[in-house]
Design goal:
The chain is α/β, with parallel strands linked by helices. 45% of the residues lie in helices and 12% in strands. The radius of gyration is 30 Å and the shape is globular.
């Protein structure tokens, strides 16, 4: 055992321990309950605002399209009857201040009634954002995100993404097809079909009713979590895995379903370690076995990843090998296990569309272990699809995921995202990248993927930039220099104020440099007494 530990390392040995346990499964499917609760809460917010005397502009609006769409996605006969009863109760009151609430309930009722018998739809309600970094007067580096002034709507976003430049380079986002010599080249035909599907999703939405999906690597703030939300909104049944199974994690998934769950959707959460072969086999058996879920997967998103910051070719260690196992070896094992399950159950007419997370980072950053090698090696799946006979069981769509702000792997680089965009690279939010990836599920692209692998480049032009690591380093250095300069200026100003305003200097200095004034501690010694008052102690003299 000591020899194995010395060779493999503690990180790898502890990182491959199985965590899957079907008894810990949590299933969320009560869309009808959350819809009623959300409707009641919204109505009570309007009533409370009206009775408190708030003006019409200050009251919560009744034109919240996202909340209306969510109620429509969950609408059933009982919800419509409940809203009709609330209208009747509120209308019986002579209080004119209830008019906004009555108008809201009527809008809910009409929208839900119209939605009866329709399929739930995923619509994108977020807004494209841009990064902004500035150094405050105190020297603190502040990062924020603002709406992009040129992209107020998703059709505008799509138009920007499908435009190339004057030099004939492919658009910031595009699809490739394999040429006769085996290379992958920009395909105007497939790209046009992709943007057509994406435009359809932006305008009309898309339904995933009757579809099932597996998503790994869907922790808070990840692209996978955003994908889960969109699948649920469209009515899909989703198995989401977590490597950090806890009450806090389960509550986050519960809130995810509460906000996005729709009619017919389900969210099944199970503990899972993508580094474990045993967990791979157990998970697939759990999903496809008739004794458990008995689902046939339509979509697979193997997005689990491990960061390995600081590892280079000179110090590759146990964690680097674990990361390779999670992001490459066991991804292929997962696909193989799904194929075997389909062969065993003779499900050969419904191939699972697998979205592989590729990357334009092929060692460009450096110091990230075997990340680039893993992403490059995943591209072999395009050839394996034909050479290993995956057709009919698996369909492959590889997505090159560009600079995505806020994820666990890229959040540390948020501060330099604005500078990077100045070099012609488009960076994305997790919502934007999830929207891009959902476009691959549109029937126009899914049908192509069933005939041959699809290669989607969502890199945002990142691969065109030379010496990216040097640019990032210079951007960080520039921010640090500016931050240190502002801190010194702030400290100097505080000292100047201390000289010119000695009475208030402590408070003013702390106000400038962000320090809390220390407490003033005083020690009071007893006051001396006169010789006469100490006559009763004279006998102690000359002892």
């Amino acid at each position: 055992m000591d020899a194995i530990t010395a060779e493999m390392g503690d990180d790898l040995l502890s990182g491959v321990r199985p965590r899957f346990d079907a008894r810990k499964m949590r299933r969320f499917d009560s869309f009808w309950n959350w819809a009623r609760q959300d409707a009641y809460e919204w109505i009570q917010q309007i009533i409370a605002a009206a009775l408190s005397g708030l003006s019409a502009d200050e009251q919560p609006g009744i034109d919240n399209e996202e909340r209306i769409q969510q109620l429509q996605n969950c609408a059933d006969e009982q919800l419509v009857k409940m809203l009709a009863g609330i209208i009747k109760v509120l209308s019986a009151s002579s209080n004119s201040m209830l008019e906004p609430a009555i108008a809201l309930v009527r809008a809910m009722h009409d929208a839900c009634k119209d939605a009866l018998g329709t399929l739930p739809l995923y619509h994108e309600f977020s807004q494209p954002m841009q990064p902004q970094t500035h150094v405050a007067v105190t020297g603190e580096i502040v990062y924020s995100e603002l709406p992009r002034p040129s992209e107020h709507t998703w059709p505008e976003y799509i138009n920007h993404m499908k435009c190339g430049d004057l030099y004939g380079t492919p658009p910031l986002m595009h699809l490739r097809e394999q040429t006769e010599d085996g290379h992958w080249a920009y395909s105007e035909t497939y790209s046009s079909a992709y943007f057509g599907g994406l435009s359809s999703i932006a305008a009309q939405g898309i339904s995933f009713a009757g579809k099932t999906a597996l998503v790994t690597g869907c922790g808070q703030g990840s692209i996978g979590a955003e994908i889960v939300c969109r699948l649920l909104a469209g009515g899909a049944r989703v198995v989401a895995t977590t490597s950090s199974y806890s009450r806090k994690t389960l509550l986050s998934f519960e809130n995810m379903y509460r906000k996005h769950g729709s009619r017919g959707s389900e969210l099944v959460v199970v503990p899972f370690n993508q580094g474990s072969v045993q967990d791979i086999d157990s998970l697939v058996s759990f999903i496809t076995g008739n004794a458990s879920l008995g689902w046939d997967l339509d979509f697979v998103f193997p997005f689990a990843a491990i960061s390995d910051v600081g590892s280079t070719a000179t110090n590759l260690g146990s964690r680097s090998e674990l990361a390779q196992r999670v992001m490459l070896t066991n991804v292929l094992r997962l696909l193989g296990s799904i194929k075997v399950a389909k062969e065993r159950t003779r499900r050969t007419t419904r191939p699972s569309l697998v979205v592989l997370p590729l990357s334009p980072n092929h060692g460009n950053f450096g110091g990230d272990g075997l990340y680039g090698e893993c992403k490059l090696a995943l591209e072999t799946a395009f050839n394996r699809w034909e050479s290993e006979g995956w057709e009919g069981f698996l369909s492959i769509a590889g997505a090159i995921i560009g600079w995505t702000r806020g994820t666990g792997l890229m959040s540390a680089n948020n501060l330099v995202a604005q500078e990077i965009e100045g070099h012609g690279v488009r960076t994305f939010t997790t919502s934007e990248m999830a929207f891009n990836i959902i476009g691959l599920l549109h029937p126009l692209i899914a049908r192509v993927a069933h005939r041959q692998p699809v290669w989607a480049d969502f890199g945002g032009g990142m691969s065109r930039v030379q010496q990216l690591n040097a640019i990032v380093g210079k951007a960080r250095e520039k921010l640090n220099v500016e931050s240190q300069t502002m801190k010194k200026i702030a400290a100097s100003m505080a000292q100047d104020y201390e000289v010119t305003n000695p009475v208030m200097s402590a408070g003013r200095a702390s106000e400038n440099v962000g320090l809390t004034p220390l407490a003033k501690h005083r020690t009071h010694f007893p006051s001396p007494q006169s010789y006469q008052n100490l006559q009763h102690l004279h006998h102690l003299q000359d002892m």
